[in-house]
Amino acid sequence: MAGHAHRASLRGGTKDGAESVASVFRQHTTLLVTGVLLGLLGVAASLTQPWAIGKLIEAAGRNESLAQPIAQLVGLFCAGALFSSLQAYIIGRAGENIVFDVREILTGRLLRADLTAFGKQSQGDIFTRTVTDTSLVKIALSQSLAQLIISGATVIGGVVLMFLIDTWLMLITMSCLGAASVLSIALARKLRKVALENRDDTGDFASDVQRVLSALPTVKASRAEPREAARIGRLADKARRSGIRVNAFNALLMPSMNVGTQGALAVVVGVGMSWVARGEMNMATLTSFIMYLFQLVSPLVMFFMGVGQFVQGRAAIQRVDELARLPQEGGGTPAGQASMAVGPLPGQRPAVEFHDVRFAYRRGKQEERTPVLKGVSFTVPARGLTAVVGPSGAGKTTMFQLIERFYAADGGRVQLSGQNIEALPLDTVRGLVGYVQQDSAAMRGTVRDNLTYAQPHATEYDIQEAVEMAGLTSVIAQLPQGLDTELGDQGSGLSGGQRQRLCIARTLLQKPAVMLLDEATSNLDSDSERDFRDVLRRVSRQCAVIAIAHRISTVIDAEKIVVLEGGRVRATGVHQDLMEHDELYRRLAGSQLHAGPGQVAPAAAPVPMEPWTPPPALAIGWPAYAGLTEQTVRLRPITNEERW
Ligand SMILES: Nc1ncnc2c1ncn2[C@@H]1O[C@H](COP(=O)(O)OP(=O)(O)OP(=O)(O)O)[C@@H](O)[C@H]1O
């Protein structure tokens, strides 16, 4: 429980992600310490073995019974094997738990990352850090750390016992090992540097592969395969070269220790045998000493292998911590936000208000700002269709991103039904606002998964209604498994227009209080677009619909049109007024907005607001809004009486 509470606090708002890997490590110290203790018992068992062999040799020399020394020796072998396998299992288990927790925390922080900060990271590098680097963290914090402690203890224990056996022989051994250790430590330092370079190079390689794969049709259409293959090849080669350097230092690390131990062995055997020949040392003592020296070789090698792995793991820990430090949305307190109670939002206020809103995206490392919205003010009524038109780059989508609170305004105020959206919990804002994006975001998974993504517990009835309203019924009927047909990445398997309708249905199912449509009809054919206009009319009686429109047919139906130019509201009004008084609107209506024959001439009469009863088959089950309230939209199931 404590561990979970701790993890929750980490997810919820660690200011400095650098603590996260260390904190996870601390949660697993009990298991790790148990593993290390078992390993130390194994060390004790193996350190006693040369002593038992010495006893066996002495007993044989004295012609005594060998049964007891042999039994002792076998017992020590078995105990050593048991303890070391238990230690390996427990440390391995702790390692898996560590990597699970690190990945869980990292995923949580990535999903709640602030979009400005997230946008600066390459997705391939994020992927490498989340998958590969976390595996290295596991190895560093479990296996190599345990290996360092256990083999370190074996070496220390062996050294102490060898001192007790013969001080001079041990001093000779120490001087050989000391020289080798100095070299090994220098190599380990260098290894850490090249390991970090290699992790970065691997991240760059992964980023580029991801970049190309996500735009594969563009690559093919541009005949860029050879260029991309060469470019990715160069990055792969850079990773290969730094990988070889890592390997070279790793390869030098162990032999440097081996040379030290082998040198020590040669000297000890030579000196020891001459002492035995002169009768200054007995054979059993020399055998025990040499056995300890042999026993020292493997732990010493393991120790320096552990150093190598730990050093590489530290490079990975650094990269994971950097990623965990990504600034979080809404101050990084999503858990608190989601559970915060919100009072009812007043019903008579406009659904959305922009008051002198200013905003600039931050680009590059220096966070250079180019103003995009330069004091935008307008209001959107609680019901009805508001169209936003303007030249490309005017800031229309940016306005939507501020309403969704993907970004915070630099100045001014964005209000949802009279409340500053900065003061509302993020979860509430995103529950109230439904967003059909410009590029119709669909995902790998079934059509049903895609439809119910914002409303996972939607009933079959609601799903059918949304599908019907979005004009998807015949499309789904033709799919091999209907709603359960699998789609590929980015919803491949459907046409652009079908994907767009899928996203519209998803948003309809969410029953938002404010629906944002970013060129949502751009991929629809004329018939589908006409049907969708009918849907819009019905939906806009239930909630505020704000549509970025490039078709005049959408715009002439609007109760209000906002003309945006260069990050400023240039004019607002209805179609006929704007045609008469706004030069840009007239130009847009004549060119960029596409009119079907006979569609432009009459100014559309405003859609009446009186209650309207739809045919039962089309009722989507929207709540009858008295106003925008957390209760009606998010918390309370919709009753039959509330359905329209
Ligand atoms: N993530 C971003 N980072 C930096 N600049 C951005 C980002 N998104 C948009 N911009 C810039 O902000 C400006 C407004 O973009 P926006 O997408 O809001 O325009 P728009 O009016 O919706 O255009 P369009 O009709 O072409 O979709 C553009 O100059 C664009 O280059």
TrEMBL record:
Compartments, record wording: Cell membrane
UniProt main location, coarse: membrane
Pfam families xrefs: ABC_membrane (PF00664), ABC_tran (PF00005)
TM ranges: 31-53, 73-91, 145-165, 171-189, 248-277, 289-311
Mode of membrane association: Multi-pass membrane protein
Location of the ABC transporter domain: 352-591
Domain ABC transmembrane type-1: 33-312
Record-linked InterPro entries: AAA+_ATPase (IPR003593), ABC1_TM_dom (IPR011527), ABC1_TM_sf (IPR036640), ABC_transporter-like_ATP-bd (IPR003439), ABC_transporter-like_CS (IPR017871), P-loop_NTPase (IPR027417), Type_1_exporter (IPR039421)
The protein's name: ABC transporter
Organism: Streptomyces kronopolitis
Lineage, uppermost ranks: Bacteria, Bacillati, Actinomycetota, Actinomycetes, Kitasatosporales
